[in-house]
Amino acid sequence: MVKVEVEYCGICNFRGQCDLLREFLLASSPDLDISCRQGRRGSFEVAIDGQLVHSKLSCLAFPQHASVLAQVQKAERGEPVEKAMEQPIKDCIVM
Q: Are the C-beta atoms of 59 and 72 separated by less than 8 Å?
């Protein structure tokens, strides 16, 4: 069984993002073990079987759900996982 762990920022209210990712992944792979836990400020870190595939702390974006699913499917086949693609950052104003 593939294990997906998500660390999210509670202060930033990213729990909903984790729930959306969980629902998306479970719709395609219902046997996944997915956990969401509150962690560091600004975080949305996704690990598959202990390997980090996405870090919002590094790239400032959320992962593309389909890209995370593609990495989960690789792990299910016993293949090595790679970094997930990021969602484009929208509506961001830098002052």
A: no
For residue 60, tell me if it sits in a domain. Answer: yes
Each residue's pLDDT tens digit, 7-29: 999 999 999 999 999 999 999 99
In the chain, the number of structural domains is 1
Structural domain of residue 46, as residue ranges? 2-77
Comparing CA positions, the residue from 16, 31, 21, 41 lying closest to residue 73 is 31
Given strand 33-38, what is the order of strands in its sheet? 33-38, 3-8, 44-48, 51-55
* pTM (two decimals): 0.92
Does residue 18 fall inside a structural domain? yes
Q: pLDDT digit string (tens) for 57-93?
A: 999 999 999 999 999 999 999 999 999 999 887 766 5
Four-CA torsion 55, 60, 61, 62, nearest 10 degrees: 40
Cα angle for residues 15, 20, 23 (degrees, 5° grid): 125
